[in-house]
Design goal:
Number of domains: 3
Shape: globular
Largest sheet: 7 strands, parallel
Radius of gyration: 23 Å
CATH architecture of the largest domain: Alpha-Beta Barrel
CATH superfamily of the largest domain: Trimethylamine methyltransferase-like
Structural class: alpha/beta
Strand order of the largest sheet: 6-17-16-14-12-10-9
Length: 481
């Protein structure tokens, strides 16, 4: 018996329950519809056969159109790195991990004080991601708050392209994405080359409940036409912008994200759409969007199951926390959410490094999450049950009361199958004390500092660098004019 990975072992829905969610979603889209604040999108849907009310801006989408759009979407998506060795392939139960994007604060790991995030923080986060072996794609973690608000995504991407060779996922802040597409195209040799090697993806959100914004829809359509990956997911707040029940929220976010795919496939058949949602509870005592709620983890399991039902690459969340500081709660919630998302079999799992409901970014938590991801990958990797692994002859030879310590089998399987932590402490107390009695946070802080001081990312060519700077300069002049 060979090696059998266990990603996707959590499958919370029966076939009947999956069908019920799907059919109810189709009914919702056809009967209630979605509101679009974008005239072009309304015309596209009307021309394709949707029932569009131009006065209310509501489009009621027939069932056949939703299902046909699902069939048109790609089943396997290349998400390329600047370095081809960093490419990842989205589909099936292949799991990949990455940071979040858009934290407005950065926390000091020693004092726990926070300050406003800057462009240099985006660069630091991407350089850290570039080094860490279990982080597969980069989001900005922070946002560049030291530049004009309308230019945040442009300066974020500038920092990202210069500081990682891994696939890059930009956050859609509503700025015209033509600038962003041109910046990524400059790295690979033009827009046509970018279609073949999509090093840039975009995370964008509809507005719950059941509304698609004007600028974001424009950007989604432009990415679809450029054949670049789009994560178009809703983030409803249970009890506020979606029903308080998990079942009602699942149907609503399914309608919101699938209606986005309808639009993508109408403007660009076969465009690379990534299915998912980021639904959690509104804590009625505090009003917060909880990043550690078990209900949130349940919806993540359900959406991965629905994504597999549709045959679509999926998006999920883990490695984040409601805690304001990097403490026991932070590592507890980061570990639980990461294991849950990986066990769901989702293809892209983001939000490494988020504290305080995503408002604050921690580079040290990213380093810790890299270790957690390594452990989770091992825990879900499955086992070989071949003759060498079972080793019946060896057990027979050692016999009762013997020792396996000095055998070649032990040396071999220690290297092959035993997980070896890099950050977690397994020393005896005496050894731990002799090495300075350092806590997990202290070790993570030291490792993070060493990486940022020593890791150099391969530089862009001078020609590419000049082109990107010209695009950034042009964007500043045109957007701020």
């Amino acid at each position: 018996m060979g090696f059998v990975p266990r990603f996707g072992i959590f499958d919370p829905l029966s076939r009947d329950e999956i069908e019920r969610i799907h059919q109810t979603t189709l009914t919702l889209l056809e009967r209630t519809g979605v509101k679009l604040q974008n005239d072009t999108a309304l015309r596209v849907l009307a021309d394709a056969g949707a029932d569009v009310d131009n006065k209310t801006r509501v489009a009621r989408i027939p069932q056949y159109m939703v299902e046909e759009s699902v069939r048109r979407a790609q089943r396997s998506i290349l998400f390329a790195g600047r370095d081809p060795a960093r490419d990842i392939r989205l589909g099936g139960k292949r799991v990949h991990f990455g940071t979040g994007g858009g934290a407005i604060n950065r926390i000091d790991p020693v004092t726990s004080e926070i300050r406003s995030a800057r462009k240099e923080d985006v660069a630091d986060a991407c350089r850290l991601v570039d080094y860490l072996p279990n982080v597969d794609f980069a989001m900005s973690l922070f946002c560049s708050r030291d530049v004009p608000q309308k230019l945040v995504s442009i300066h974020d991407l500038d920092a990202m392209l210069h500081n990682t060779e891994k696939p890059v996922m930009i956050v859609d802040y509503g700025t015209d994405v033509d600038y962003l597409i041109d910046m990524a195209a400059a790295v690979v040799g033009g827009r046509e080359a970018l279609r073949k090697r999509p090093i840039l993806g975009m995370y964008s959100e509809p507005i719950s409940p059941l509304t698609h914004g004007r600028e974001h829809v424009d950007n989604v359509m432009k990415f679809a036409k450029a054949m670049l990956p789009v994560v178009y997911i809703s983030s409803p707040l249970m009890g506020a912008s979606s029903p308080a029940s998990i079942a009602g929220t699942v149907v609503q976010f399914n309608a919101e994200t699938l209606s986005g795919n309808v639009l993508m496939q109408l403007v660009s058949p076969g465009s690379p759409y990534i299915y998912g949602a980021d639904a959690t509870v509104m804590d009625m005592r505090t009003g917060v969007f909880s990043y550690g709620a078990p209900e949130w983890m349940i919806t993540n399991l359900i959406l991965a199951t629905m994504g597999r039902y549709y045959g679509l690459p999926t998006w999920s969340t883990g490695g984040c926390t409601d805690s304001k500081v990097l403490d026991g709660q932070a590592t507890w919630e980061a570990s639980l959410t990461l294991y849950n998302a990986a066990a769901s079999g989702a293809n892209l799992i983001h939000d490494f490094g988020f504290l305080d409901f995503g408002l604050t970014g921690s580079l040290e938590l990213v380093t810790i999450c890299d270790e957690i991801a390594s452990s989770v990958r091992r825990a879900l990797s499955g086992e070989s049950l071949d003759e060498a692994a079972i080793s019946l002859e060896l057990i027979d030879k050692i016999g009762p009361g013997g020792s396996y310590l000095a055998t070649a089998h032990t040396r071999s399987f220690f290297e092959r199958e035993h997980w070896k932590p890099q950050l977690i402490d397994r020393n005896t107390r005496r050894m731990w004390e002799a090495r300075g009695r350092r806590s997990l946070l202290e070790r993570a802080t030291e490792n993070t500092k060493k990486i940022l001081e020593s890791h150099n990312v391969k530089a862009l060519t001078p020609e590419t660098d000049n082109t990107i700077r010209e695009i950034v300069s042009r964007a500043e002049k045109e957007i701020l004019a």
